Amino acid sequence: MLDRFTERTMDLEYTQEQEEFRQELRSWYEENLPDGWLEGERDIPEDGEEREEFLRDWQSKLHEGGWAGVHWPKEYGGRGATLVEQLIYNEETARIDPPPSISVIGTDFVGPTLIAAGTEEQKERFVPNILDGEEVWCQGYSEPEAGSDLASLQCEAIDEGDTYRINGQKIWTSYAHYADWCFLLVRTDKSGPKHHGITAVLVDMNQDGVSHEPIDQIVDDSTFNHVYFDDAVAKKEHVVGDVDDGWRVAMKLSAFERSALTQAFALEKSFDELVEYCKNTERGGKPLSEHTTVRQKLAELDSRIQAGKLTYYRNVSKQMKTGEPGPEGSMDKVFTGEIKQDLERFKTKLLGPEAAVWDEDAPGGRWQTSYLQSFGTQIAGGTPDIQRNIIAERVLGLPKDAKE
Ligand SMILES: Cc1cc2nc3c(=O)[nH]c(=O)nc-3n(C[C@H](O)[C@H](O)[C@H](O)COP(=O)(O)OP(=O)(O)OC[C@H]3O[C@@H](n4cnc5c(N)ncnc54)[C@H](O)[C@@H]3O)c2cc1C
User: Fold this and answer.
1) 376 in contact with ligand 1, CB cutoff 6 A
2) From residue 390, how far is each of 145, 185, 201, 382, 395 by CA, in Å?
């Protein structure tokens, strides 16, 4: 099975140069993280303008340090890191758990898509402002009646010469409340099959025809939104790819998205915290780590986490040969997503009655939050069912979903 994707053997040792890259990143984080961050003091503003300012400043700091867009080509302001360096970057960043990136949609999905499929004018206009947080992006794909079945989208763009007039609604749009620009999918032709007649266009969020409303989440946060387009205007020169052929561009962006959504490394950090807790917490007169059922679950989780990491390495190995992320990103997303949910559920269970206490101090509060967040993480970027369909069709070569 393995050699269907890559070669049978893999060199898992890092070179000295790669270890130096890791050390450089580690030192940069140590010098530049907000005061007290590594000691667990993580007071970032909860919401509003203060939070936005904090997150934009952090993005600009990352950029100044050369750590925004590590995987971007140097000619576009990135670090030009190799895929292995990018892997090391992901590993270290998951371990350190820095403040969230306000520009994640720009740096990880929109920027790489524009570099691959945008016009020279679009690259010149938009790409430089992504890495330093000057312009924040959101991704307008999902609609109330078009989530998994994205090709059913109805948000309409009417041709008005040099511009499009856009009317419709998007939902679950992460970061729309901060965004300056939206990578929007619109319907430009209703006459043909549903995958035809979709166009990808870049839309200015700071105009009268665009409004948004927060959607409250289970963790008492609201990072995503309803977005309404009422006679909003987009320039034709901001269409990415060909008119009516946006599905192809949309899938390119989705492949970048899935490859960026790995949880392989965050799992290890969360697991290590669990092991420490089990060693230091007594139940029934002995540490949790001495209870047989707990030990069995820890062993099971650890082997799945290691398998998740190896699956990720295998995907990177394949991408090194093909040059672009493939459908294997779906395997990683579904596999590590399920482990994450199981791990966080088990942690919450071990807290026992403490799980009902919502305290900011570790582990109470943070563990429950991670557990509740794990549901949304599974859905974002395509649900596990949809990832399984992709794996069935594009990795295993099985017949297409009958509904398509
Ligand atoms: C945290 C988070 C962030 C998000 N951010 C964004 C964003 O920034 N931009 C954006 O556009 N969207 C975003 N989304 C939306 C996300 O892409 C959709 O929620 C997702 O694609 C599922 O669509 P849906 O919610 O409409 O569910 P539905 O498509 O209605 O699915 C409902 C259920 O039916 C199952 N199902 C549907 N079709 C099939 C099928 N063919 N085979 C098997 N099972 C099926 C699904 O697996 C699911 O269990 C975000 C979602 C979350 C949770």
Assistant:
1) yes
2) 21, 21, 25, 10, 7
> From 1.20.140.10, 1.10.405.10, 3.40.50.410, 2.40.30.10, which CATH number describes the 261-395 domain?
1.20.140.10
What is the predicted pLDDT for the residue at 259?
72
120 is known as an active-site residue? no
Residue 116's Cβ-side half-sphere holds a number of Cα atoms within 13 Å equal to: 18
Q: In the CATH hierarchy, which top-level class contains the domain 2-102? A: mainly alpha
CATH 1.20.81.30 fits 137-253, yes or no: no
Roughly how many angstroms between the first and final C-alpha of the chain, as a whole number? 28
**Amino acid occupying residue 236:** K
The protein residue whose alpha carbon is closest to atom 26 in ligand 1 is 147
Kindly give the number of the ligand 1 atom that is closest to the alpha carbon of 142: 11
Residue 207 CA to ligand 1 center (angstroms) comes to 28
> Could you report the per-residue pLDDT of 319-361, keeping only the tens digit for each?
888 887 788 888 989 999 999 999 999 999 998 888 887 766 5
**Considering 92, 257, 268, 328, which one is annotated as catalytic?**
257
CA-CA distance, 316 to 14, in Å (whole number)? 14
Indicate which residue's Cα is closest to atom 12 of ligand 1: 142
Tens digit of pLDDT for each residue in 173-224?
Answer: 999 999 999 999 999 999 989 999 999 999 999 999 999 999 998 887 788 9
Any atom of ligand 1 within 6 Å of the Cβ of 141:
yes
Nearest residue (by CA) to ligand 1, atom 48, is 383
Tell me the three state secondary structure of residue 328: helix
pLDDT-based confidence at residue 39 (cuts at 50, 70, 90): confident
Gap from CA of 324 to ligand 1 centroid (Å): 24
pTM exceeds cut of 0.70: yes
Distance from residue 382's CA to the centre of ligand 1 (Å): 5
Runs of H (alpha helix) within 352-401: 366-379, 384-390
All structural domains of the chain with their residue ranges: 2-102, 137-253, 261-395
Q: How much of the chain, in percent, has pLDDT values that exceed 90?
A: 72
The answer to whether residues 155 and 168 touch, using CB atoms and an 8 Å cutoff, is yes
Q: 250 alpha carbon to ligand 1 midpoint, in Å?
A: 15
pLDDT digits (tens, 9 = 90+) for 126-171: 999 999 999 999 999 999 999 999 999 999 999 999 999 999 999 9
Q: For a ligand 1 pocket test, name from 104, 137, 139, 142 the mutation site with the most ligand atoms within 8 angstroms of its C-beta.
A: 142
Which secondary-structure segment (H or E) carries 254?
Answer: helix 246-260
